[in-house]
Amino acid sequence: MRLRTAKDRLKIEHSIIDGVREILEELLARNPEIRSVIPGVIRPVRDARGKVKVHITVPVQNGWKAIALSAGARQELFISTDWPKESLEKALERAGAVL
C-alpha cells in the first residue's frame, strides 16, 4: 500500500482526527529537521476532549512514537527525526499542541 503524501513529509495512510492535521502541518512547516510524520491507527477514548494533546511515548528506530488525543479519539503518530525528546516536545508546543 502506497502512502499518500501532503507536502512530501506528512504521510497519510489513515484519516487524521480533528485538529491534529493542522498541528502536524505547522510542526513540519517550522521544523525542516523533522523528516516525516506518519499518523497511525485511530481508536475511540473517553477522556480526549478540548485542545489537542500530544504525548511523546517511546523512541522508535528512526525517531519517536507519540499519541495525539482529540475529539474523543486517540491516534498514534510516528515522528521521524534525530531530535531528543525535549526538543520535539518544545516544537509540538510551538505548533499548538498541549503536552
Model description:
The protein has 99 residues and is of the alpha+beta class. The chain has one domain (4-95). Helices cover 22% and strands 39% of the residues. It is built from 2 helices and 6 strands; from the N terminus they run ββαββββα. The protein has helices spanning 20-30, 85-95; strands at 4-6, 10-12, 36-44, 53-60, 63-70, 73-80. A 4-stranded antiparallel sheet has the order 3-6-5-4, with helices on one face. Helix 1 (20-30) crosses helix 2. The protein is globular and about 35 Å long. The chain starts with a strand and ends with a helix.
Helix content percent band: 10-25%
Number of helices: 2
Q: How are the strands of the biggest sheet laid out side by side? A: 3-6-5-4
Shape descriptor reads globular
Instruction: List the quaternary state of the chains.
Output: single chain
The run of helices and strands is: EEHEEEEH
Structural class: alpha+beta
What would the average pLDDT be, to the nearest integer? 89
User: Poorly predicted ranges (pLDDT <50, ≥5 residues)?
Assistant: 1-6
Distance between the termini: 32 Å
Give the total of domains. Answer: 1
